[in-house]
Amino acid sequence: MPEQLTLTVSLRGTRQVESNYQIFRLTGLLDAFSESTLRNVIGKCIDEGPADIILDLSKIDFVDSSGLGALVQLVKKAQNSKGSVQVVTNPRVTQTVKLVRLEKFLSLQDSLAVAEENVKGK
């Protein structure tokens, strides 16, 4: 059962812990206002484990450079904990990520099913 995450007024989400990975479903704005809260909350969840995470950003309306920076830091944190990050995206998010050429580093996926297969097959 997904648990509600306390993030910000403009960024909401849930966390679902599976046997060997976590799914975070986020909605709203991933920007300078919300990025530090996102980093802290999800960073703590990575520490608690499991370290393989899926960030479902398919319902995100906007990502700015601060939001991208938070995603990069979360990928590095997961990797340092022997985990990985899969990012489920939408056209707006994909366009922003591709603009700065981070699509491979952030492991962009078109669907949650593909992201889950990637972490299950790890």
From TrEMBL:
Domain STAS: 23-83
Domain of life from the UniProt record: Bacteria
SUPFAM superfamilies linked to this entry: SpoIIaa-like
Annotated PROSITE patterns: STAS (PS50801)
One MF annotation (Gene Ontology) recorded for this entry: anti-sigma factor antagonist activity
UniProt similarity note: Belongs to the anti-sigma-factor antagonist family.
Protein name as it appears in the record: Anti-sigma factor antagonist
Organism: Moorena bouillonii PNG
Organismal lineage: Bacteria, Bacillati, Cyanobacteriota, Cyanophyceae, Coleofasciculales
